[in-house]
Amino acid sequence: MFFLLVIVFVSTVVGSFLNVVICRLPLILSGRTDISLSFPSSHCPLCGNSLKKRHIIPVLSYLYYKGKCAWCGGCISLRYPLVEILVVLLSVLGWLRFCPDYYLFIGWFIISVFSVTVSFIDLDTKKIPDVLTWPLLIIGIVFNLNSGFVSLDESVCSAIFVFILLQLFSSVMSWVCKKTAIGGGDIKFFSAIAAWFGISCIPFVIFSSSLMTLIAIFIVKSKCGYNLSGMKIPFAPGISLAMALYVLGVYAVPFIYIGTIQP
After folding, report:
1. Closest CA to 128 of 29, 230, 231, 226
2. End-to-end alpha-carbon separation of the chain, Å?
């Protein structure tokens, strides 16, 4: 129980930091030189006033101030506590899945953190930064050096095979349809997942992520009335959710066992 509380605490802190990464990394990569992940200090996106420590306590500050800035009273996006809660949820479910194997849990925590970051950046910018996908792939291979989720050979071969296969598929579909079928960032993200969990997860992740993305598109078009024709569709959230369903299995969807990875 104590370790679970530690997981919750650490996850909220990490989730709070991820909010900074999600907001600032795309700006840094676009060439902005006046900001970094540590500068300037946290401030209200509406009035620009610096936030004190009591204003940035993960989740609790948002609830205490009822989703408003303590200085100007402007509404703060629900996404900030959502990211923090999502990291906590994935971490707790991961511990329930892999307990008492600390090594596998740490691996799951790492890929969860990367996946949340990639997903929200993709939602914002419709791009997945190479600075996230390539390190995730390399870390996955290194992680599987020591009795990880799959063998080292399977990790390396799966990543290479998935990358080449999806690149070929993308090239053929682009030639036939005269438009991009799957983005380069998505291909690298799939390859990184293959490096972590092997080739066996990819069919499920591709099918499920495609299905969930199509459902999301249908809901947005029918309920919100948005015209999405010609727009880039963020695929990373669907990929991340499908990956989580595959790995967590029964702990993510009660009474339905999907996961095939055994700790």
Report:
1. 29
2. 20
Per-residue pLDDT, 174:
82
Please tell me whether the overall predicted TM-score, pTM, comes out greater than 0.85 for this model: yes
> In the predicted model, is pLDDT for residue 255 greater than 50?
no
CA angle 142, 148, 153 (to 5 degrees): 65
Q: If 0-12 CB within 10 Å is exposed, 13-18 middle and 19+ buried, where does residue 207 land?
A: exposed
Q: What is the dihedral of CA 116, 213, 170, 163, to 10 degrees?
A: 40
Sequence-distant (≥ 6) Cβ neighbours of residue 28 within 8 angstroms: 35, 36, 37
The model's confidence at residue 263, banded by pLDDT at 50, 70 and 90, is very low
Q: Could you give the 3-state DSSP secondary structure of residue 137?
A: helix
Burial degree of 196 (CB within 10 A; 0-12, 13-18, 19+): buried
How many CB atoms neighbour CB 262 within 10 A? 8
Rounded to whole angstroms, how far apart are CA atoms 219 and 206? 20
Dihedral of alpha carbons 199, 107, 13, 50, sign = negative
Q: How far apart are CA 114 and CA 94, in angstroms?
A: 14
* Residue type present at position 52: K
- Write down the domain spans for the chain: 1-99, 101-263
